[in-house]
Amino acid sequence: CTHSCCIAWEIDIDKNTYKKYKKLKGDIGEKIRASIDSVGQPHFRLLKNDRCPHLNSSGLCDIIISLGEDYLCDICKEHPRFYNFFYSGKEKRCEVGLGLACESAARLALLYGDYTKLIPLDIPAGKAKYHKPKDIDILLEREKIYKKLSDFDMCATDKISLIAKSYGVSPDKLSQEEIYNLYSSLEYLNPESKLAFIKANGNPKSLSGDKDSFVERYFASLIYRYLPTSINKSDLALNVAFCMALAFLFAEMIKDCESLGGIIKQAVTISEEIEYNTDNIEQIKFCLDLHCRI
Fold first, then answer.
1. What is the SS3 assignment for 231?
2. What percent of the chain lies above the pLDDT cut of 70?
3. 269 — phi, psi (to 5°)?
4. Is-contact 35 44, C-beta < 8 A?
5. Is the peptide bond before 171 cis (omega within 30 degrees of 0)?
6. Angstrom distance (rounded) from CA 260 to CA 251
7. Strands 43-44 and 36-37, how do they pair?
């Protein structure tokens, strides 16, 4: 990967894997234990260049090479997958998808497959907690959004704006100054991301060709991830607004991109800076809730 999830990311170790590491024998066991900071939530102590201590010079994981995937901690084993557990009517439903902070996942989301089609998988849910949305049918709402997104004969940003307005939220309610202040106040892994987000300030103009298709598919991917987390109608509208905000940011950031690699990089950047930072998600949603309701 040109963008490694083993660099500059906090890597927490789950309880069961931590127990495995404590029992490991030999040099590899000693090396792993020496790399762990056990204060608070156990995690790997990153090296000076922010690399995971088990990421070797070839960009491969020494734990996998020496012990196999079974000895990875959950976050390494599952990334970039995410899971949603919710009720659709009386039926329990588990959905899995790929987060866009992974460049391979972003490439798949932007380029391949019909985003309206889901593939049934046999996923053991274990002791997962399923939430029950109040007065909304997540699957029906998602189907309606995908239908509008794929049927309208207009550019992706206009379709997204109309979809958002149908849920009582509008990008037009957010001023340039409010957008600037929002992106200026977020936490960033990379200072360059802050500059890029601020530069992309404002509602995007329409894009043409493949770029317009990328924005549509990007928004559809976000809807798949965040709509099932909705707990009621108001929360559903806020999740649509959040997906809209990120899609508009993405559209602004790719308008001058000259390569597919550059476009994928922007999707990855937005995801790692926002989607994998709960404080940033909450701050954006608070701003949208305050300013974007119609």
1. coil
2. 97
3. -60, -45
4. yes
5. no
6. 14
7. antiparallel
**31 backbone φψ class: left, alpha, beta (φ>0; ψ -120 to 50):** alpha
Asked if 276 and 99 touch (Cβ cutoff 8 Å), the reply is yes
SS3 245: helix
Per DSSP, which regions of the chain are E strands?
36-37, 43-44, 81-88, 91-98
- Tell me the pTM: 0.89
Q: Collapse the DSSP code of 55 into the 3-class scheme (helix H, G, I; strand E, B; otherwise coil) and give the result.
A: strand
Give the tens place of pLDDT for each residue, 66-79: 999 999 999 999 88
How remote is the C-alpha of 55 from its chain's centroid?
A: 23
> In sequence order, which residues have a C-beta less than 8 Å from that of residue 257 and are 6 or more positions away?
211, 263, 266
Residue written as tokens 């090396």? 31
Q: What are phi and psi of 278, to 5 degrees?
A: -60, -35
Give the model confidence (pLDDT) of 8-40 as tens digits. 888 999 999 999 999 999 999 999 999 999 999
Tokens of 73: 């901690």
Asked whether residue 104 carries a pLDDT value surpassing 90, the answer given is yes
Q: How many CA atoms lie within 13 A of 162 on its CB side?
A: 17
In tens, the pLDDT along 190-211 reads: 899 999 999 887 667 667 678 9
Diameter over CA atoms, the chain: 63
Residue 97 β-bridge partners: 82
Measuring CA to CA, how many Å separate 17 from each of 11, 31, 115? Answer: 12, 15, 35
Q: Are 287 and 241 in contact (CB under 8 A)?
A: no
Please name the residue that has the structure tokens 């599952």: 78
1: its two tokens: 């990967």
What is the per-residue pLDDT for 148? Answer: 93
39 CB burial (10 A radius; 0-12, 13-18, 19+):
exposed
Lowest mean pLDDT: which of 21-25, 99-103, 152-156, 164-168?
Answer: 152-156
For 21, the token pair is: 């590491």
